[in-house]
Design goal:
It is a multi-pass membrane protein. Belongs to the purine-cytosine permease (2.A.39) family. GO terms for molecular function: nucleobase transmembrane transporter activity. It is built from 7 helices and no strands. With about 140 residues, the protein is an all-alpha fold. The chain is flat, with a radius of gyration of 19 Å.
Length: about 140
C-alpha cells in the first residue's frame, strides 16, 4: 500500500477492522459455498497458468520481460475471458442445485474449473482473435 501512510501498528488495526467487516462468522455458516467459490477461482487460474506455461510458451520463460527495467504492463485478455467463463461454469451449480450436471461441476469446482480453463485457454490461445500483431 503506502509505507509513508501505514506502519506496522496502523496496518494491524486496518487488518483487524477489515477482518471484522467481512463477517467471518457468516462465512462459517455457509462454509461449503465459500469453499466452492475459492475452488471456482483457483481452479481456472491454475488451468490457465498450466496451459500458458506448458502449451503456449513451451516451458520457456522470458526473464528479461518479467524482471526487466521496462515496466509496461498489459493484461492477458485471453486469460481474463477464459477465467470469467470457467469461473461461471464451475460456480453456477451453487445457484441451480436441481440440475444434476451443474451441481456435479460445482461439487468438484476446482477440478472442473481447472480442466475447463486449461482446454479453453489452449483453444483460444491458438486463435488470432485476441492476439496482437507481432506477439504470440
Amino acid at each position: 500500500m503506502s509505507p509513508k501512510t501505514f506502519n506496522v501498528t496502523k496496518g494491524g488495526v486496518f487488518t483487524a477492522i477489515v477482518g471484522v467487516l467481512i463477517l467471518p462468522w457468516k462465512i462459517i455458516n455457509n462454509l461449503f459455498l465459500f469453499y466452492s467459490f475459492i475452488g471456482s477461482m483457483f481452479g481456472p487460474i491454475a488451468g490457465i497458468m498450466l496451459s500458458d506455461f506448458y502449451l503456449k510458451k513451451k516451458r520457456a520463460l522470458d526473464l528479461e520481460e518479467i524482471y526487466g527495467d521496462d515496466q509496461t504492463f498489459d493484461y492477458n485478455k485471453q486469460a481474463i475471458v477464459v477465467l470469467i467463463i470457467s469461473f461461471s461454469l464451475s460456480m453456477i451449480g451453487a445457484f441451480f442445485p436441481n440440475i444434476a450436471i451443474l451441481k456435479l461441476l460445482n461439487d468438484f469446482a476446482f477440478f472442473s474449473g481447472l480442466i475447463s480453463s486449461f482446454m479453453l485457454y489452449s483453444l483460444i490461445s491458438k486463435t488470432t482473435l485476441f492476439t496482437k500483431k507481432g506477439r504470440e
